[in-house]
Design goal:
Belongs to the methyltransferase superfamily. RsmH family. This protein has about 900 residues and is α/β, with parallel strands linked by helices. It has 44 helices and 14 strands.
Length: about 900
């Protein structure tokens, strides 16, 4: 991956697109004019540049350049209109996506809330927010990189649109920031980078129709481009990257090897260009070089760009697409007799996986002889290059030497001495538990005398530390399906009566443990001993070649190599797709076809090296668009997760943990992959309560609140308990240096009493009095604990509905007592003022109380007071009150 500073981006983009000085080029995103100016500097008098932009400031700057240079012309149009403006052949197209620096500095885009790139087209964001729906806004937030958390997106969208029902509008970006600040307790731990900029960016993309505009300009650009003309695209966000990659996948051709044995119908599915619509095109698209990203030190949310160089190339018409005679593996997957093993491959094969698969067939003497021959060939090639004047650095990059060295390393890994050395090193290496101290401390938060569960015993790192911190009365139970791990646990069990281990999956926690538990620990993924043991097949490293098994418990189920003989390409693609988020369509289908095609030709995968070798080859072909893609690791992980039912097991253990945990007990989950984090977040969303701000906002719409918080209507077995995220932990830099496998995040979920007991959530009016009586009981018991005041706010709201303003004043007075551990907020006072109804004088008297507690009135306060004054016909007092509030900075 090539690293560079942001200021070099323009130079690299211009150099990549310019293929000659006498041609026509198009700058689709003029912006501040940097790219157009540099491009003009490289052109002759015959060369020309046409630019597009809809922003008035950018167009004005372009008009100045247009007046000074006759070779330049700018149009105030969307770049999607390229086909309507330019009808002649083009040599190159430049696309630098996202807003320009001029637009980012323009305060009118966000104050008032506008977000249009062209203020002459469409409706501003503030107007769109007044008429959109929760479903549409939530979809916008999820689609354009703002948030990949469906339920949380729904909640934020609902909170934003609640202002519409309150007859309030969004006047600026700061008004969105206020709502987001109220909701921050819901997402602060899991989404620390979620901010107003990300929300407004998603709205900007939607309002300006940037996705269809980008799709249209890519299609038009390649229709207008000369053959071998280039389109350089700079993407800055994931949605832009997805559109560019999807366009590339839809316009690329397969190589002859990939197309050889597939039917025309299947090829058309994997390569849309070969379909009926694509057959009409006389060109294909290929990536010229590796995509360029900024170096790590330059990486930030504004600088996280990626530069793509796409080239228009002629179609390969010599390819035989009529390969319908090829076998259809959809039926082959059900064939009981697997193909016979293939003969040994010749010595010149250049696949590491195939070289390693010959380990059992070649004696050590033959391996040593071939290594000596390769060493002599490398030395001879270096001597020849030296005679030609090549420096040592040039010799190392020579393709022939690189191929020879690759084969030599593969053979070296097959040596008996090397294999013994690796095994000895793995046996002597201790398993290093991740986030050891942090996770154990969070797990035993309720004290040393309780029962705790280690759901992933492994080699006992967490369990041993847990036992050292427990008292004589404390107990620890552990789970593991790995036979070797259970044997280690039996040793601890024999010496410590407080410990017990179960040889069963942690998904059976609810069956094995029925008594209350104070804390539960899950360290997901594969342990180091499993990775280091060749016979398990978990590692993708060539030096750890072994049978392709991938089972946690080798006594249950079938190994991966046998499963691959029975699976179809669509099924395998779905397995890969289920845990891999980096591969766009139809890459999972293509990878699955390649895996099964190799199996059809050469027989079952008898070793991990065979599958790794194939996946490395596929990964190299994707390296251009996916730098540093560890495809073998991704596919191995997907197959392992499927065979061991890890997604299902995680869901079962989380559900069981929520049931068996004591009140305020904690469940610590250490996650290593994105699918694990997504599963934990989804479970948390389904079992958490609304924050005080959101519950008060939706007091008039309990049905909507129930949709946003499923726990309110789920009738869960845990009754009056919910989950909250107590904290989140990540490994320190020092731990990452000590242990390369420590890249993880730990979620700490705590079981807490529900602030709103279940019988409070009945929206029917006949239960309001019951709810108010219940609030009185809770006040007497001082049951409103913690920093959640949502129950009080809802009680005040219900008091207003039932015209019980006396109860609302009583509850508010109790909140102001010194021995009460809750502090009224502006929402609390607003609810109380609303509950007072026509008792305007009593409502006005609450303002001094707000000042005493340093609670500042907001627009809702002004509205509630004005309504109370109007109902009591206190016109003069109401106008005077509004004047005083305005003088204090509270704008009605």
């Amino acid at each position: 991956m090539c690293g560079m500073a942001e200021d070099e981006l323009t130079r690299v983009a211009v150099e990549s697109v310019c293929t000659g000085p006498d041609k026509l080029y198009v700058d689709c995103t003029f912006g501040s004019g940097g790219q157009s100016s540099q491009l003009l500097a490289q052109l002759s008098d015959k060369g020309r540049v046409v630019a597009f932009d809809v922003d008035p400031g950018s167009v004005a700057k372009g008009r100045q350049l247009e007046g000074n240079d006759r070779r330049f012309q700018i149009f105030q149009k969307h770049f999607g209109d390229l086909g309507q403006v330019v009808n002649e052949p083009i040599a190159g197209v430049l696309l630098d996506l996202g807003p320009s620096p001029l637009q980012l500095q323009d305060e009118t885009l966000g104050n008032p809330l506008d977000l249009r790139l062209s203020i002459e087209e469409g409706a501003p964001a503030c107007e769109w927010l007044s008429r959109t729906t929760v479903l549409e806004l939530s979809g916008v937030l999820q689609s354009f990189d703002a948030l990949h958390d469906p339920l949380l997106s729904d909640r934020i969208a609902a909170a934003l649109l609640q202002r519409k029902e309150d007859q309030l509008s969004y006047t600026s970006v700061s008004s969105i920031a206020e709502i987001l600040a109220l909701l921050r307790p819901d997402f602060a731990e899991e989404h620390p980078n979620l901010n107003v900029q990300r929300l407004t960016r998603a709205m900007r993309v939607f309002l300006n129709k940037e996705v269809p505009q980008l799709e249209q300009v890519l299609q038009t650009a390649f229709e207008r481009l000369d053959m071998h003309g280039r389109c350089v695209v700079v993407t800055r966000h994931a949605w832009e990257l997805a559109v560019v990659r999807q366009f590339l996948r839809g316009h690329e051709e397969p190589d002859a090897e990939a197309a050889r044995d597939l039917s025309s119908a299947r090829l058309a599915e994997l390569y849309p260009l070969l379909g009926s619509e694509g057959q009409q095109k006389d060109y294909a698209v290929r990536q010229v070089s590796r995509s360029i990203k900024p170096s790590n030190e330059d990486l930030s949310e504004e600088k996280d760009w990626m530069l793509h160089v796409l080239e228009k190339v002629p179609r390969d018409r010599s390819m035989r697409l009529a390969s319908d005679v090829g076998q259809d593996r959809s039926n082959l997957a059900l064939d009981a007799s697997p193909p016979s093993p293939p003969p040994l491959l010749p010595m010149h094969v250049n696949t590491i996986g195939d070289l390693l698969s010959r380990a059992a067939a070649l004696p050590q003497e033959d391996l040593d002889a071939e290594k000596d021959e390769l060493s002599r060939s490398i030395a001879a090639r270096k001597a020849h290059l030296k005679e030609l004047g090549c420096a040592l650095s040039q010799q190392k990059k020579d393709p022939e030497i690189l191929g020879l060295v690759k084969r030599l390393r593969a053979l070296y890994c097959l040596g008996e001495k090397y294999q013994e050395k690796v095994q000895e090193r793995c046996r002597n290496r201790c398993h290093v538990s991740v986030l050891l101290e942090e996770s154990v401390e969070e797990t035993i938060a309720l004290g040393p005398d309780k029962l705790y569960i280690d759901c992933t015993f492994g080699r006992g790192g967490h369990s041993k530390l847990l036992l050292s911190k427990l008292s004589c009365g404390g107990r620890l139970k552990a789970f593991d399906v790995d036979q070797d791990a259970v044997q280690v646990g039996r040793g601890i069990e024999a010496t410590d009566s407080r410990f017990e281990i179960f040889h069963r999956p942690f998904g059976e926690l609810g069956v094995a443990v029925t008594e209350p538990v104070a804390g539960i620990l899950l360290d997901l993924g594969v342990s180091s001993p499993q990775l280091d043991e060749n016979s398990r097949g978990f590692s993708v490293k060539s030096r750890k070649n072994g049978p392709l098994d991938l089972r946690m418990n080798q006594q249950v189920g079938e190994p991966a190599w046998k499963w691959l003989e029975t699976v179809s390409a669509p099924q395998l693609a779905e397995v890969i797709r289920s845990t891999c988020y980096r591969l766009e369509e139809p890459l999972p289908e293509r990878i699955a076809e390649a895996i099964l095609q190799r199996q059809l030709e050469r027989g079952p995968y008898t070793s991990t090296a065979q599958l790794v070798g194939l996946l490395d080859e596929i990964g190299e072909s994707l390296e251009v668009e996916h730098p540093n893609l560890r495809l073998a690791h991704i596919v191995f992980c997907s197959i392992r997760v499927y065979l061991n039912r890890e997604i299902e097991q995680l869901g079962q253990v989380l559900e069981a943990a929520f049931e068996v945990l004591e009140p305020f007990g904690r469940c610590v989950i250490i996650c290593f992959t994105r699918w694990e984090r997504a599963a934990v977040r989804r479970f948390l969303r389904e079992h958490e309560e609304p924050c005080a701000a959101l519950a008060a906002q939706f007091g008039a719409s309990p049905e909507r609140l129930a949709k946003l918080y499923p726990l309110l209507t789920s009738g869960h077995k845990t009754g009056d308990f919910a989950l909250r995220q107590a904290s989140q932990a990540r490994p320190s830099e020092a731990e990452l240096k000590r242990n390369q496998r420590a890249k993880s995040v730990a979620y700490v979920l705590e079981k807490v009493p529900r602030c709103q007991p279940s019988n409070w959530r009945k929206p029917n009016a006949r239960h309001w009095a019951e709810a108010l009586d219940h609030s009185a009981d809770l006040r007497q018991q001082n049951a409103f604990l913690g920093n959640q005041i949502v129950a009080c706010n809802v009680a005040l709201t219900e008091a207003g509905r039932s015209s019980c303003w006396q109860q609302s004043l009583s509850l508010l007075a109790w909140l102001q007592l010194r021995n009460c551990r809750l502090r009224p907020t502006v929402i609390t006072f607003n609810s109380a003022i609303t509950a007072l109804g026509s008792e305007a004088l009593k409502a006005f008297s609450l303002l001094p109380e707000m000042r005493k507690l340093a609670v500042r009135p907001d627009a809702t306060t002004c509205g509630a007071l004005a309504a109370a004054g109007a109902r009591s016909a206190l016109w003069a007092e109401t106008l005077g009150l509004i004047h005083n509030l305005r003088s204090q900075g509270s704008e009605p």
